[in-house]
Every structure is written in structure tokens, then in C-alpha cells.
Write a structure and sequence with these properties.
The chain is elongated and about 65 Å long. It is built from two helices and nine strands, in the order βββαββββαββ.
């Protein structure tokens, strides 16, 4: 299991896709990109998708993701993405009342149960008390991480991680 904290952007694109029956159909797909700005997110999705799509495509939406951390699975069968809302539980020392802080994660898994297992695997290594408040499958097709060196060859982008 690998986790990665970064500034993530959710990007939607639209393009003509050739279906199994040979017909062309306009489709919209969502992706997550590691970038420092909206402009960079657009540039990165254009670069990434140009090798997968033959023809024109449009970036229809870019927004900052509500999560900052992604839990990547090392299992090749984990091909779905889930958005998890975790609540960190702390006790206020003065009032001795329970306090819950919401934190969002993006989790790679093949099933809902697999996503819970992956969250528990990562969070089990911490001393944080937490509950999974919600967990839902997303329509995101893939996540594109920033890779130092590979992406730097294409631009004069400053290094970060």
C-alpha cells in the first residue's frame, strides 16, 4: 500500500470514443491529476491523454479535489476509485468531550470491502482513532501522479513533492 499527499485536481474531458460495435460515441470521463495550478492540471491531462486518445478532446471541467491524500493499491485488479470521508476522533482535554474532524481520502480498490481493507491497512499503522463516515465509488477512470524527472523533461516546472 502506498499513500501520496499532494495538490490534486479533478479533471473532466469529452471526446469521441469508438465503441465495440464500431460506432463513434461522445463520452465524458473524469481523471485526477497531481498539479500545482489549474493551468498545470490542464496541461498535464492534455499530455497524459494524448497518448490514449487519437483525435481531439476537450477539457470540460477542472476543480480542486476535496482530498489531499490518495491510497494507492499494489494489486493490479484494483481498478476502481473510492472517495472516503474519515472522521478523526480526539478528546478535548478541558471538556473531556469527543471531537470529530473530517478528512477525505481517495482510495484505489476493486470493491467497497477492498476499499475499507485498504483504508484500515494504512490507518492501522497510525495512532489516530477514526471511523469511516462515508465511502462511495467514483466515476474517475485513472489518477496521474507527478513523477519528478519524467514530467520535468517536458517543461521548466519547479520541483515539488
Amino acid at each position: 500500500m502506498k499513500t501520496r499527499s499532494a495538490e490534486w485536481f479533478e479533471v473532466k474531458i469529452a471526446y469521441e470514443k469508438t465503441m465495440e460495435d464500431g460506432l463513434q460515441k461522445k463520452v465524458k470521463e473524469s481523471y485526477v491529476v497531481d498539479a500545482m495550478s489549474f493551468t498545470e492540471a490542464e496541461r498535464r491531462i492534455m499530455e497524459e491523454m494524448s497518448s490514449y486518445i487519437s483525435g481531439a478532446f476537450d477539457v470540460t471541467d477542472i476543480k480542486k479535489a476535496s482530498f489531499r491524500e490518495i491510497i494507492f493499491s499494489e494489486n493490479d485488479n484494483d481498478d476502481r476509485w473510492y472517495k472516503a470521508k474519515l472522521q478523526y476522533i480526539t478528546i478535548d482535554e478541558k471538556t473531556e468531550k469527543e471531537k470529530r474532524s473530517n478528512v477525505y481520502y481517495f482510495v484505489q480498490a476493486s470493491t467497497l470491502a477492498g476499499a475499507v481493507k485498504n483504508i484500515d491497512a494504512v490507518m492501522g499503522g497510525t495512532l489516530i482513532d477514526y471511523v469511516i463516515a462515508s465511502l462511495s465509488e467514483t466515476t474517475v477512470m485513472d489518477v496521474f501522479e507527478y513523477h519528478k524527472g519524467v514530467d520535468d523533461e517536458k517543461s521548466d516546472k519547479p520541483e515539488y513533492e
